[in-house]
Amino acid sequence: QYVFRSNDSAATWSQISPDLTRAEIVVPPSLDKAAADQVDRNGRRGVVYTIAPSPLRAPMVWVGTDDGLMHLTLDDGKNWRNVTPAAVTPWSRVTMMDASAFDAAVAYASVDRHQLQDFDPYIYRTRDSGNTWQRITAGLPAGVYVHTIKSDPIKRGLLFAGTERGAFVSFDDGDHWQSLQLNLPVTSVRDFQIYENDLIVGTHGRGIWVIDSMVALRQIDDSIASSSAYLFRPAESVYVAQGGDNGTPTQKDEATFPNAENGVFLDYFLKTDASGPVTIDILDSSGATIATLSSTPSAVAGAGAGAARGGGAGAGIDGIPNTSPIWRVPQEPMSAKAGMHRVVWVPTSGGGRRGGFGGAPATTFVGTFSARLTANGQTMTQPLVVKPDPRLPT
Fold it and tell me: From the CB of residue 12, how many other CB atoms can be counted at a distance below 10 Å?
């Protein structure tokens, strides 16, 4: 029930808070029996459950407890202020607090009240250092409580919420929410981690999941949603040189998942089904086409056309046929259906083989390029950058 701090990489610790939990024992009539039987633990039962240091001010730290209290210190623990919203009563578990990377006065908190037989979602936002709070749950399903709330450190107002039955996203600082379930199993989402451009999802009992390159989520706005077709600006990519041997593939009955594609993720949006072919041309710095990705399988063309795969969940074989067919991901045409889609351009000619198989080496494309989407009679171009493998001397 105390907060400790280390200034020497956890070699030593010092206590910087008093007991931040509730002093009184409260047993609400709605409390489930299993929890009510455990209330007498040396007179107090709460613990510090979540700690959120401000990324903008080092002495500023938010703390939430599992018995329904929130505290804030502005001076590295010398003084603490109770900033709990009035609606957060005893036996409300503050499951996560998150401090904004854009405004030190802004923070978010998720609260779980299912032990009180209240299964509704509770997420709160403050914009004045905890003086006032607003409940921000519009769009979240009723009867599904919340485990975590995380704000994106790159795009202001982009929030992620993990509930007992899935993942949700908000593009307007929590005013409205929508599902981000995609192909996640319907299960308890306990936490998110944002690493560079990737969104990592921790579930309860269904593994760790990743959205590789969520740059499209950071670019979505009303103007894109109203466009008939849109190509998102891809993140900078690194072409990773593959090893020179085949290795031994993991057995197919192992609980593993393929690595992300070794290529450039190209995300695009179609408001309606395309009336004709959808293509993405890859252009070099001179404007010459070096690869074409298409919704028509036979239309892939261009000098040194890199391998392309749809769906964005391939095994990273790079289009080079030196593995057993059961380990290869079949190349798929781009989708021409309405909605958000992803295709992967593998920046290599794919004309050679690796690891003692003979044949001419493949040409790898690194540098500055452009991607040009053509769909529904419109074209749109975005720059893209492919960096060389930093482990190689050339």
Answer: 10
Query: Which own/partner contact pairs does 190-194 have at CB distance under 8 Å and 24+ positions apart?
Result: 190/147, 190/148, 190/162, 191/96, 191/147, 191/148, 191/150, 191/162, 192/148, 192/150, 192/160, 192/162, 192/167, 193/150, 194/150, 194/152, 194/153, 194/154
Sheet holding 146-151, edge to edge: 146-151, 159-163, 166-170, 178-179
Taking alpha carbons only, the member of 95, 101, 125 closest to residue 194 is 101
At residue 81, φ and ψ (nearest 5 deg) are -120, 130
Query: What six digits make up the tokens of 248?
Result: 């031994």
| Pairing mode, strands 229-231 and 264-270 | antiparallel
**What does DSSP assign to residue 36?**
H
Q: What is the mean pLDDT of residues 60-72?
A: 97
Distances in Å between the Cα of 346 and the Cα atoms of 93, 261, 284, 323 are 47, 8, 14, 17
* N-terminal to C-terminal alpha carbon distance within the chain: 54
Structure tokens, 277:
């072919």
Phi, psi of 190 (to 5 degrees): -95, -25
**Can you give the pTM of this predicted structure?**
0.85
What pLDDT is attached to residue 351?
36
CA 84 → CA 70, 115, 318, 363, distances in Å? 5, 19, 53, 60
What's the rounded mean pLDDT across residues 213-240? 92
Structural contact between residues 296 and 289, judged by C-beta atoms closer than 8 angstroms: no
DSSP β-bridge partners for residue 86: none
Query: Is 267 in contact with 214 (CB distance < 8 Å)?
Result: no
Secondary structure element (H or E) that encloses residue 223, with its range: helix 222-225
CA gap 225, 168 in Å, rounded: 18
Q: Which helix (H) or strand (E) holds 227?
A: none
